[in-house]
Amino acid sequence: MRQSLSLGALVFLLPLATVLSGCSSGTQTSPMIQKESVTQLPDGTPIDLYTLRNTNGMEARITNYGGIVVSLTAPDRNGAYEDVVLGFDDVEQYMGPHPYFGAIVGRYGNRIANGRFTLNGETYALAQNNGENALHGGRNGFDKAVWQAEPVTTDEGQALRLTYLSPDGEEGYPGNLSVAVTYTLTDDDALRIDYEATTDKATPVNLTNHSYFNLAGQGAGTILDHQIQINADRFTPVDGGLIPTGELRPVSDTPFDFRQPAAIGLRIEDSDEQIAFGGGYDHNFVLNGEAGEMKLAARVYEPTSGRVMEVHTTEPGVQFYTGNFLNGDITGKGGTAYGRRYGFCLETQHFPDSPNKPDFPDTILEPGERYTSTTIYRFSAE
After folding, report:
1. Which residues of 116-150 are buried (b: 16+ CB within 10 A; e: fewer)?
2. What are the tens digits of pLDDT across the range 231-261?
3. Cβ atoms of 272 and 283 closer than 8 Å
4. Nearest in space to 286 (alpha carbons), one of 235, 214, 337, 222
């Protein structure tokens, strides 16, 4: 069954859960967290922006609209901070069309084939918002939800706890799903994301964050010179609709072998059919190690700035996406037109289309279980 708390996960999450159980109400703001009311929905629902800072000067700005990471600064080898995530200067722009910049995606991150799955003998039809497939929770997924926000203080740093109740039938999914996502900006220069969920009816759950990174600084050009290492011996090849075939293919002797660091652009134009299907990299990697246990997923190094980002997760997979569908039509921060491959994503996850792939790790959350997942993006420089 999906994501019952293992002993390892319980031990890892207990300190944060303990702190959160005694936190203050959402109307109060922790001393180092700034809250700014930036706009409102037509019905008057307020949209706020929260700024978290750690003791080293790193900063994260997060809005309760879609749980979006609006900006995230990280130091270069000289100690200079730069925003390393793509997005917009104006929070209101996130309410228009965009490719999930910085957002929480759910109920189901990534694709479900034909927008359908069968569970306990019943077939559920989802919004087909990516060709014939369902993508990232549907037309109005968690990226467009207004979350309840509660700033808190933890032993690791300043945190923002976001909660949302996804009602039974929302976007076609069964069950009332109670979700909590906690962003913690730690004092060792990491953005930690803890996901939790419970349901009153069996339902697929696969939550992730969809930040686009450029470690040279958002808007600094392509990410092709970034050096990436992915801790995966296998990946899940896809068909022309980017739906996994069900195979777990070894990365050896393919353009998907990042077991040793390599430039993102080194093989991105390879003639391999999988590269052609994705227009570059847009694939799930099967991480080495056990699901539910914290492990290194990927390490990325940007040579000009010296910035390093390590991704650690309890998830069994990570979607490596190289911004292949950015085409300059979106004007982002500072008036930058985001061109093709101006950012990359490392979306920690269970595998795409798992509800239709019984051999993939299970994504079904049952009543009485608790979904838990943790991902840490840790920054340094060399």
Report:
1. bbebeeeebebbbbbeebbbbbbeebbbebbbebb
2. 999 999 999 999 999 999 999 999 999 999 9
3. no
4. 235
pTM of the model: 0.91
- Give the other-Cβ count within 10 Å of 352's Cβ: 27
Q: Which domains does the chain have, with CATH numbers?
A: 7-381 (2.70.98.10)
Q: State the CB neighbour count (10 A cutoff) for residue 294.
A: 17
pLDDT per residue as tens digits for the range 187-202: 999 999 999 999 999 9
In 10 A of CB 338, how many CB atoms?
25
Number of residues that this document lists for the chain: 382
Distance of CA 190 to the CA centre of its chain: 14
Q: Where are the alpha helices (DSSP H) in 252-334?
A: 273-278
> In this structure, what token pair is assigned to residue 330?
């979106």
Alpha-carbon 130 to chain mean position: 18
**What single-letter DSSP state applies at residue 174?**
-
| 3-class DSSP assignment, residue 246 | coil
Q: Please list the active-site residues.
A: 210, 347
Residue 260, both tokens: 């040793």
Give yes or no for a contact between 172 and 127, defined as CB atoms under 8 angstroms apart: yes
The three-state secondary structure class of 210 is: coil
Listed as own residue / partner, the contacts of 125-129 with beta carbons closer than 8 Å and 24 or more positions apart are 125/172, 126/171, 126/172, 126/173, 127/171, 127/172
Question: For residues 363 and 37, what is the distance between their CA atoms, to the nearest angstrom?
Answer: 36
- CA atoms of 201 and 173, how far apart (whole Å): 10
